[in-house]
User: What shape does this take?
Amino acid sequence: MKILFKMKKIGIRCEKMYLKRLELQGFKSFAEKTILEFKPGITSVIGPNGSGKSNISDSIRWVLGEQSMKSLRGAKSEDIIFSGTQNRKSLGFAEASIVIDNSDGKLPIEYSEVTVTRKIYRSGETGYFINKVPCRLKDVLELFMDTGIGKDGYSIIGQGKIDEILSNKSEDRRHIFEEAAGIVKYRTRKAESEKKLEQTKLNLLRINDIIAEIESNIEPLKIQSEKAKQFLSLRDELKNIEVGLFVYNIEEYRQKLEKLIKDIEIMEAQRNDETDKLDNLQKSKEDLKTAVDNITMQIEELQNIGFESSNKIEKINLNIGISKEKIVNNNANIKRLDEEKQEVEKRIKELEEEKSGKKEKQENLLINKEKFQKELQEKEEELNKLTSKMSSKELEIEEKKKNLEKSVDEKYEKSSEQTAIKTNEENLIKRKEVLKTQNIQVISELDSIRMDKQEISKTFYEMETKRNNVIKEKNEIEASKQECSKKQEEYETLINQISNDIRIKDSKRKFLIETEKEKDGYIKSVKSLLIACEKDNSLNKGMHGVLANLISVDKKYETAIEMCLGASMQNIVTDTEQDAKKLIEYLRNNNLGRASFLPIASVKGKKLDKVKLKSNGVIGIASDLVKYNKKYEQIILNLLGRTVVVDEMNSAINLAKGNNYSFRIVTLKGDIINPSGVITGGSVPSKTVNLLGRSREIEDLQKEISNLEEKKEKLEKEKENYINSIQSIIKRAEDLEQYLKEIEITYATEKQKMISVEEKIENLEKNLKMQKEEIQKVDDTIKEFESRKESLKNEIANLESQIEEYNKQITEFAQYNKDNQKYVDDLNFDITNLKISVSSFDESGLSIEEMINRINQDIDLQKSSINNKIEQTEQMRQENKMLKEEIIKFENEIEEVKLSVQNSTGKIDELKEIRTQKNQKLSNLEKEITQQFNVIEDIKEQCVKMNVKKTNTEQSLEEIINKLWEEYEITPNNAEEYPRPENIAIAEKEVKSIRNQIRDLGSINIDSIEEYKKTKERYDFMCEQRLDLDNTAGKLRKVIQSMTETMKNQFSEKFKQINKNFGEVFVELFGGGKAELILNDENDILECGIDIKVQPPGKKLQNMMLLSGGEKAFTAIALLFAILKINPAPFCVLDEIEAALDDVNVYRYAEYLKKFSNSTQFLVITHRKGTMEAADTVYGITMEESGISKLLSMKLSS
Assistant: This one.
């Protein structure tokens, strides 16, 4: 859209106050720093809807002090700050400044240029500045008061302001007229004066009340003050005398204390000497005990020797039994071997006889053989002679006959050999059968023995397992036995330690009970009174006891509570004041000294409540840390209710400072911070008798003794159970030892059986092997015989074939030569028969020779068997001899062991005698130690009593020092200047007399002297103040009345002018008609409403609400111009107030702006062309970037 700007010439104007510049940064849509320069005249701000034009008007209103976010078109203060866009981050603050030219000095400030700035941060912090100097909102409002400039004035007019002017409530319009009339500052001052007057009235009322109260108290305070002065005079006199008495008593107690300390040091030295003696006795006792223990160990070792000797004898007897068993077995084996040897010898005899028969037969055969050989020789010689006479043919035949004979001889030799082989084979077969039978017998016997071995092995291995288990169990029992013995010693050590602890604790408990019974630790008066009350029931009536005995405290708080209570621990608690009076009378009548009493009926206490106790190190209020009967609550609260217990001094100091030293604080170590700020502390003397913790300590000791006795009883029962378990273990060990002996004997027997069976098996296996080898040899020989038989059979068949051929040839020759041949044949026949016989003899001889050889072999074998058996028998006899020698050796060892046992028994008796003597010495030494311990205990008791006296003296001294401090806040060192009394009795009487005078004075209020002085001064001051307030109220009434008159006159005058101007401007703007302003109540012109009545041209006079929107807006504009005529504002911001006007009226409105622009600077925010044309300067607002306003400017001139 193209905007046309009308160019005009700006005339020279006079120097007046005007808006020079507007600076924005982070305000709403103005993200970047934006500066708008203004000149006198009309400045127009234009731009599309939503571009941020009205934010300029809002920024000026905001700088001038606008607090309503609704008026600034927002919901909360953060809405003023730039909230960011999609492309820009939000800002953390918003700032706006207006710069005003104050050359005419209209603003009441000595600057020609005034800059007013307002700044706000997102955190909510905000601030105002005038010329960069921080100021208040009130300062800003007062700066612009009655200038027409302000958030409620007529310098900033928007559509909302138009609606406010034209609203139904006429009262809402008043502030514009008041601003125009210039009475706002008077109204403000009047309001302030009325507020001051009201405050003055209230102050007068309060002062009157205070004066009335002071008047009622001042006279009694005067009486109390005079009495207090008399009391102070008596107290000073009492202080001089009593401090002297205190110093005298302190010196007396210090001398006593020095003497007691010296006596205690002497007793301590004596106790140390006696303790050294006891240590020496204890050392001697330990040495004796060690010696007794060593002797006991030697006795046990010797007893162990006896026990081991018994075991050794049993083992030797076991070995003897085993040896005897071996001898019996060997004898049985020798007997068996002798029987076997006899059988073998019998067999040899039979073989010898058989051999003799064979030799005799062999000799007969030799004789017969020689005879036949001789006859054969003769026949052959005869045949040779006959043959020599035969022809060659015959010789040939003879040769053949010889060959025949030779073949026959060979045949018979072969047949003889065949027969011998057959006979030998048969003998070998028989031998083989015999060997097989023997082999079967050996195998059978071997199987039987092996079966026996299995049974024996089973029994042996069972016995061996049983023996190993018994040995293992025996070893475990021995280990358990040693462990039990060690445990028994531990039990004895623990029981002795516990017994010693019980004895020490019981001694301490008895001592504490005795000190409690004798009332040790209490001051003389309290001690005497307690003993008297125990004896006299009437005196005891109404008395509860010493406070220390009526409360109980945890051990860790004892020091703190004891330091808190101090001498109050020995205060006596009674039911009533009368009971206390009765006991005081008793002390006085018996001259027993003084004591303090706490009557339950009268002593009241108060507990701290509003205290900052949440500091580090605070443990609690002292009264809460003490256990007591409910009826003593007020007494405990009185003494401890305003005391706080902390862990250490730093915590105490911090707590005291934090609570302004309003109560007493004590640390666990006993250091005290008093409410006065005085700090008491240092080392706490160790006390032998602790009054506060004595009952608790007795109870604790009794519990500890009970626990120790229970523990001791439990240990003794455990020890007894252990002893029983040891007895069962010892019995089990003995049973196992006996059982092991029996098992060892059985084990040795079974082992010998195993060895014997294994030897038998070995021998039988050896025989079986030899038999097998012999059978193998027989089989090999039979095979050779079979082979030879087959060979002989073939050779005999060949020879028979030759013999048959020879016989055939000889038979043929014999047919030719029968006679000679017959004789030759006979000879040959005879020779052949003889040869056969000789050959038979040879064959039989060979057979007999072989049989004799076999018999010799059998004899040798049997003799070898006899030799083996003789050798075995000899070995067994040698073994028996060795075993007998071993038995003799074992028996000698038994004698030696028995002799050793007899010697050890004598040694044991001797050691037992020595042990008895040492035990007697030990017993005497223990008695001596007990006596020495009693001596030390007596010395300790004396030391304790002396320490009790020392403690009592220290307590008495401390009580006097504390009392000196509590009553006069003087230390012994500071009391040196006070005179000592020359006569103690007279001094005590004077003290008593002065105290009676003080008592007769009654209750004294020391503070009443100062209080009366202050009250009198206050009374005089209040009277003066009342007079001043009366004068001030009168002055304020006059001021209010004067300002009211001024406001009425000025408002009435200005209102008439505005009304006149309104009528004129209305006619000018509307071109006719009339308009007027009417006061609702002319008698109350400063508070009444203002009505507007108008009559546009051609219409009846009517109410504003009946006008059209344009008419309403124009009427409001007419009223604005009417006000500006009477009291022109330096500048005026108009935000689209002409929006409802038509173009004609817009031009009229613009003309009027020009008319007033000489006296008033206008900043017009508009959309209307007519208004734009009237502007001297135009600013354009646009949003090139979404959400961010940007400024364009143009200056118009002609």
